[in-house]
Amino acid sequence: MSDASVWSAVLAATAAGLWAWRRWHYPSFWYLVGYPITAVSVRASWRRVALGCGLTKKRQRWWFTTVPGAIASTGIVRVKRRFQRVAVDTKPFMWLPLPTRYGWRVTLHTLEGQTPGDYADAAERLAHSWGVHAVRVSSPRPGRVVLQATIRDPLVKVDHFPPSPELLRVTVGRLETGKPWIIDFRTVPHWLNAGATQSGKSNLANALIVGLAPQPVALVGFDLKGGVEFTPYSPRLSALATSRAESLTLLDDLVALMVDRMGVCRQAGARNIWQLPPALRPVPIVVLVDELAELYLMADKSEKDEIARTSTALLRVAQLGRAFGIYLFCCGQRIGSDLGPGVTALRAQCSGRICHRVNDPETATMTLGDLDPTALVSARAIPAETPGVAIVAGQDGQWYRARSFYVSEATAEHAARTYAHLAPSWDEITAHLTGTDADLPELLDA
Ligand SMILES: Nc1ncnc2c1ncn2[C@@H]1O[C@H](COP(=O)(O)OP(=O)(O)O)[C@@H](O)[C@H]1O
Ligand SMILES: [Mg+2]
């Protein structure tokens, strides 16, 4: 065999080996091969990329040449002196890129006059220049920005649903950063979950049901679309309202329950049920609402009164539920103010926000509120092919792209039946209710 054919065989074997490595164990391939190459090329191309993306600034620099009279590299200026002042493009200083699970992260020093917003505006251009799926910008402190590049969309495929052993804390999916997406009702008590039909709202509710079913909590459902969504889960639900009349009764019960729990807390000198001794602590209740708008929509004038009462009761639950262990998870296609003033007030109480794919920009704005405008852009860019992808805000004031684990109705139904024995009966929960609405004004002031 000639030398050339040996070499080409070695090269082919190396390429095949690398390809197989990448395919079978991407994480180790990325850290040991992909990342070092990427880090070097990102650093090497940074001047060009920064220039192309409009992130450079002109600065005056002294320029020195050994050959006066030569033509400068631009070809335009004839250099007359050895030293002269020239304007050069300076790029923001870049630290060494660090590997992350799905890409890399790098810290930059902003140049004078730049804000993190300038980098956010350039994020899409940066992503294209680097050939990555997305670049996210954050600013840990003034003068620094961190660019987080994800090579491929990590949300195209998410793994399986893990168990959630901690009380009221369910890992429902995965964030774009690779971290788990956790809904923790004890940190963020009330949630809004918006999205068009087929965007993955019910899937997320299923994930919550599966996660919470084995825990010592009571689940309550409001499903005014005739109960089609939640009736299959009724073995694990302590109460289910499928009509307006039922939902009013159930909401009244919840309000009375809060008043009662408030009395218990006051007697024990506790501010909330978690400060009570375990023997006295009432069971936490998670309230799932399938289509929020149904609670507010009026078929005819005669319902006006009922709707006003529903709206007030729901708002009270939201205002006081946190301290007394009643948590809301409201799903809806629209959460707009067109549903009435009650919705706006309710929205203000729900600090957890989830926005799945939406059809109109208003819903995204309503759901995500005054988050950073790029969050709204991201929400509107969620493709229909990836149901379950959502923009999530809550826990830490930041927003993330995330995707829920796929949880079929059958899985949720199975969990509901398996843990049916853990569902406290509603009669048991509401037994010995003594509180009346008269205590409420005092409560609301507290
Ligand atoms: N995270 C996910 N991963 C994969 N498929 C999903 C996911 N979430 C939802 N789906 C699929 O998308 C479809 C619509 O989801 P669904 O939760 O019923 O939407 P919605 O309640 O918003 O109308 C379902 O068929 C479901 O199987
Ligand atoms: Mg649905």
From TrEMBL:
Name of the protein: S-DNA-T family DNA segregation ATPase FtsK/SpoIIIE
Domain FtsK residues, every copy: 178-365
GO molecular function: ATP binding; DNA binding
PROSITE patterns, per database record: FTSK
UniProt cross-references to InterPro entries, sorted A to Z: FtsK/SpoIIIE/SftA, FtsK_dom, P-loop_NTPase
Residues involved in ATP binding: G195, A196, T197, Q198, S199, G200, K201, S202
Keywords assigned: ATP-binding, Nucleotide-binding
